[in-house]
Write a structure and sequence with these properties.
Elements: E1 5-10, E2 17-22, E3 29-32, E4 41-45, E5 51-56
Antiparallel strand pairs: 1-2, 3-5, 4-5
Bound molecules: zinc ion (ZN).
Length: 57
């Protein structure tokens, strides 16, 4: 899969924004504290060291 777009996600711990690459500009992003069993997702670490998951919907 080619990553063609960049979006900003907000850390749900501290509201810090982190830029991530996404497969599609129109994709819906959903942040979560846990990994999902299936689907496209990405592990994100914010500037303050919090780790969370972003699911592409
Ligand atoms: Zn954070």
């Amino acid at each position: 899969m080619q990553l063609t777009a960049t979006r900003q996600v907000k850390c749900y711990h501290c509201d810090a924004l982190t830029s991530i690459e996404v497969p599609d500009e129109d994709v819906n992003l959903e942040t979560s504290h846990s990994v999902a069993a299936f689907g496209e997702q990405r592990k994100v670490t914010c500037a303050n060291g919090h780790t969370y998951w972003v699911h592409f919907c």
